[in-house]
Structure formats: structure tokens, C-alpha cells
Write a structure and sequence with these properties.
Elements (H helix, E strand, L loop, with lengths): L5 E6 L2 H12 L12 E3 L5 E6 L4 H6 L5 E5 H7 L4 E5 L5 E8 L11 E5 L2 H10 L4 E5 L6 H5 L4 E6 L3 H5 L2 E10 L1 E5 L1 H18 L5
Parallel strand pairs: 1-3, 1-4, 7-8, 7-9
Antiparallel strand pairs: 2-3, 4-11, 5-11, 6-9, 6-10
The structure holds 1-O-pyrophosphono-5-O-phosphono-alpha-D-ribofuranose.
Amino acid sequence: MSSSALTLALPKGRILEQVQEHCASKGIEFSFKDRTLVTHTADGDIRIILVKNNDLPVYVNHGIAGLGICGSDVVKESGFPFYELCRFGFGSTRMCMAARQDHDPAGDAAHLTIATKFTEFTREYFHRRGIPVQIIKLNGSVELAPVLGLSRYIVDLVETGSTLKANNLKITDILAEIHVVLICNPAYYKLHYTRVDAFVSRIKDNDP
Ligand code: PRP
């Protein structure tokens, strides 16, 4: 194993399997055995740490991991100034505004009330457009908010749309496309750019 292995943070959860498959297709093989949270690629070139999605930017910002793969929503929400080195073709989703199926926008108050996990994204999106909003921060199961009357709207990621459908909600607006990206700590890039660039060439999607 190389003592100068690059360190890459990956998020637990739904994109991990897709990242693993993508890496394997590029000859970058790794696995996490027996609930371990740190592993190395088979060739020892890359040390990989497994972290909670929202903690990933914290590890990369502190340089514990120089590199990370996560959704662009996570990067935006963190507010940290990472370099985005490449964007992958898998795992794309949409950031959407949604409301109950029977929602009538004519009944909206002057301030839109929006429940979301993505408070930074939502605040910036509506403030840029001069639309007054009251944002209610939730940590999950956001779809419950309009159903139970906490808010008229939610802003959330929509992948298949099945969670919205199951809760009788409808998309009222698509706010942004979200992509899975490779990010890098800027200071780490300055120190290791030769190896980081070689890694990017290895892991990025083939040019069309
Ligand atoms: C995400 C997102 C939606 C759901 C969308 O939640 O916040 O709730 O997935 O996926 P779909 O369009 O394929 O149904 P997640 O599974 O991360 O759980 P959470 O609600 O606890 O945040």
C-alpha cells in the first residue's frame, strides 16, 4: 500500500452502490467489510472513508479527505468553496417544489411557507427571485409537511417520484438539476494536483 495514498470520502446511502459500480468499471476496486468505515482500493492507491452524506463536506473542508463524491445539493448546502473536478452521469436527481395534489396556488399567502432539508438552497433560490418565503427546517420525511398542514410547499429531491406519489403530492416546479460530483479541497489540490489530475482522468466518465 502506498504511504501517499489519496484520500476520498464517499457517502453512505443510495449513491454508494452506484459509485462502487462506476469505480469498478474504471478498474478501481474496493469494498467495506464488517461495518468498517475505512478501506483502500485493491492497488492501495486510494484510501476511502465512508461518512454520512451531510458530514462529507466537513471531512473534505478539514482536509481529512482531500477528495469526495456526493450530490451537488450537498456541496451547495455546505457553503464550502470546493473545486468541482468532474460530474458523473449516474445518480442525477431534481430539486423540486411540491404541494398536495389538491393544492390551489390562488390560496397562497404573501409569504410561501416551505418545509425542506435544503434551507440554504431554498433561501438563495427564492431570495434571488425576490419571492418572500418562510422556511421550516426538517431533517427527513419532508413529504409529511403538506399532508399534515405544517407547510403548503416542500422543496426536496425527486428521483423516481414514488415518494411524492405515495403521499398524494405533485411537483409544482423544478428548481434545479442535481448531479453527482467529484469535489476537492482547494489546498489539497494545490499540494497534490499531479496525482489528483491523474485520478480524475481515471475516474471520470468517458467523453461522448
Ligand atoms: C429522498 C428525498 C425524497 C426521496 C425521493 O429521501 O428527500 O424524500 O428520497 O426519492 P423518490 O423520488 O425516488 O421517491 P431519503 O430517501 O434520503 O430519506 P429522508 O426522507 O429520510 O431524507
